Amino acid sequence: MERYIQVRLFASLKDFSPTDPDNFPISHGETIKSVLKRLDIPQNEVKLIFIDGVKKDVTYRLQGGERVGIFPPVGGG
Fold it and tell me: Rounded mean pLDDT of 48-69?
């Protein structure tokens, strides 16, 4: 059975958005690190990861149905 997540990429990462960000297919137990690799997002471009509004890291294992928000480092002055 295929599982899906919602992927939201912010700021400079928007260019890496999948075709259907509301139904991004994953394998059960796939890590965020694997999702980043599949989306061709360099890991050093990622600063914050939120799963259903809770901060996680790249080792988090997805089950399906999660909302994933990925943010780059933000600079400002």
Answer: 97
